[in-house]
Design brief:
disordered N terminus; five-stranded antiparallel beta sheet; alpha+beta; binds heme D
Length: 571
């Protein structure tokens, strides 16, 4: 263990020592007091518990260094009460333990969820005190650390030469079982769970190889898992760790480079890593620390969404805190060329327009969508939108009045925004005047959308509301009729339709995903770890339930990635 993760061992030693010193001071009756205020007392065990909960639950939104991004800045200068008892600094209200406990327990209108049904009262109190301490800094993670963690479980030569099962692989759904750190591979034709495999902690997204044979997943602990669908049952053939916190992966998809490389983006350390696509052998690590679009140094610019270009040997790599979009040219990774495009903060998730030339990404703190032209390598537009756009991958369709549009939902406002996107078709020339403008805002019953979805064969646009505080919205999905967008969306009560007994805690309905044929929509009914969850499948035409997949092992299902739609970026 110490040989494989030397820096981790040092990290745990350092934190143990600092915790021990803290305990000694406190035992002697001393309060750690600084100009910024008084640090509340904590035992070494409480500090360790706070650190664990912070990295598992909070760092994703607030950042490891607590400088803030999707979530607010949580540095001590404003979480601690002032030493002299005053509660303001620079006009801002300082928080202190009691106020922080309330915020953690009940959430905020700014979008922070309530933790009173996830953490105990004691844990909430520990967290309120922990975030008044100076942030703990985890170790770096080098190419050597990656090499030490790399496990090639089945070398390429020992893998099947042809598909050894009779499953229609194109219609398999790679389904995240979030809180168990597992991935369920579900046969989309029979709707049976084909296999459940271990993956990384709180596994996040799945992406497909260009071939459609391999599924790549990434856990929030930075563990990448490579799964081969050609065995009789899906099998993990390689794993590697890229750091201690990560969210994104994609392969090289340009002609001649298909699956030669895999890129993974880390939150901590802030960097991206390039690996061999079929083995995960690590090849290169590139730091993303640097200067933001505002000209300030940022020590933790995390890698958010990544996609593989269809028209060049490049990945589009979106750096959250700097607001920079990188085009990383993988044709010569020894002499890596990177185009750096200024956009806006904080970059998060996004998807292609219908032509797959422009990548549209949410700059959520700026309430903008940035569109990058992957042909010219330049920013095409920065589009002002309503608050906190969160597109997932967005949704493309033809609007009768405005032509091709790309849709995004919003966490912060009750609308789905439609943005006009360019088209080379002569018949579409009349729509050019609308390009890169929000041409319509479809009204939703509340804010808190995470994902929208449609399909080229569908006349519907599906929008979830998992982050809305009202049960009637959280547990439902809303369906717009694309043939008449003046109509309000139809509400489907997914929790009720699942037939499962009601639960005290809210179950979030999230991530609509089409099957390969584009005639059914799969939704996750995401309950607590001990609740019964389900995947509820609707007929896209009749909006009637076709099937409910539920199983004791179907714990906390969230993202679902249809092999064919993910492989070809169909949305
Ligand atoms: Fe995600 C995509 C980051 C919380 C489900 N999420 C993404 C992407 C990023 C991201 C950067 C884009 C990846 C890409 O395309 O390469 N997500 C984050 C966070 O930082 C955040 C806010 C907090 C955290 O601690 O991780 C976060 N995400 C969540 C959830 O709580 C969700 C709802 C449930 C879960 O499984 O964790 C969730 N995120 C998803 C899903 C996608 C995603 C399903 C892929 C959407 C797609 O259709 O491609």
């Amino acid at each position: 263990m110490s040989k494989r993760y030397p820096s981790r061992l040092v990290w745990s030693m350092v934190s143990t020592i600092s915790a021990a010193v803290g305990t000694m001071l406190l035992a002697a009756g001393a309060h750690a007091q600084t100009a910024a205020g008084t640090t509340p007392e904590m035992t070494a065990a409480e500090i360790e518990q706070g650190k664990k909960i912070y990295f598992e639950r909070c760092a994703g939104c607030h950042g490891v260094l607590r400088k803030g991004a999707t979530g607010k800045n949580l540095e001590p200068h404003w979480t601690r009460k002032a030493a002299d008892g005053t509660t303001t600094e620079g006009g801002m209200l300082r928080l202190g333990t009691a106020r922080l406990e309330k915020i953690i327990a009940l959430g905020t209108e700014g979008g922070m969820v309530n933790y009173d049904d996830i953490l105990t009262k004691e844990e909430i109190n520990i967290m309120a005190r922990y975030i008044q301490r100076t942030p703990d800094v985890p170790p770096e993670f080098s190419l050597k650390d990656m090499e030490a963690s790399w496990k090639l479980l089945v070398p390429v030569a020992e893998r099947p030469k042809r598909q050894m099962n009779k499953i229609n692989l194109k219609n398999v759904f790679a389904t995240t079982l979030r809180d168990t750190g597992k991935l369920a591979l579900i046969d989309g034709d029979t709707k049976q769970i084909w296999e459940i495999l271990d993956t990384g902690y709180a596994v996040h997204i799945s992406r497909l190889s260009a071939s459609g044979r391999y599924v790549y997943t990434v856990g929030r602990d930075g563990l990448v898992t490579l799964i081969d669908l050609w065995f009789e049952k899906p099998k993990t053939v390689a794993t590697i760790r890229m750091g201690s916190d990560a969210r994104s992966v994609d392969t090289s998809k340009f002609k001649g480079f298909e699956d030669k490389y895999l890129i993974g983006g880390s939150y901590w350390p802030p960097q991206y890593s390039i690996m061999e696509g079929e083995t995960l052998k690590p090849l290169k690590v590139v730091s993303t620390r640097g200067i933001t679009v505002d000209g300030e140094y940022h020590p933790e610019p995390r890698v958010a969404s990544i996609v593989s270009s269809h028209i060049k040997p490049e990945w589009v790599v979106n750096i959250k805190e700097t607001g920079m979009i990188l085009l990383v040219d993988y044709s010569d990774i020894k002499n890596l060329k990177v185009t750096t495009i200024d956009s806006a903060k904080f970059l998060h998730d996004g998807g292609w327009d219908i032509t797959k030339r422009y990548f549209l990404v949410a700059a959520n703190a700026s309430h903008k969508i940035a569109a990058v032209d992957t042909k010219t390598g330049k920013l095409a537009a920065l589009v002002d939108t309503k608050k906190i756009p969160h597109p997932g991958r967005g949704a493309n369709f033809f609007h009768p009045q405005f032509g091709p549009v790309w849709a995004t939902g919003h966490l912060g406002d009750p609308v789905v925004s439609l943005i006009s996107t360019p088209s080379d078709k002569p018949a579409h020339a009349k729509f050019k005047q609308h390009n890169w403008k929000v041409v319509q805002e479809l009204k939703m019953p509340g804010a808190g959308n995470l994902f929208v979805k449609t399909h080229p064969k569908s006349k519907n646009l599906w929008a979830d509301l998992p982050m809305n505080p009202e049960r009637e919205h959280t547990e439902s999905v809303y369906v717009f009729d694309l043939t008449d967008l003046s109509k309000p969306p139809k509400k489907l009560d997914v929790a009720k339709d699942s037939g499962l007994p009601e639960t005290k805690a809210l179950r979030r309905v999230t991530h609509p995903e089409y099957n390969m044929a584009g005639d059914e929509v799969w939704l996750s009914l995401w309950g607590g770890k001990t609740d019964r969850s389900a995947i509820v499948i609707y007929d896209d035409k009749t909006l009637k339930v076709k099937k409910v997949i539920t199983d004791p092992n179907m714990i906390t299902p969230t993202g679902k990635f249809n092999v064919y739609n993910t492989q070809f970026d169909i949305y």
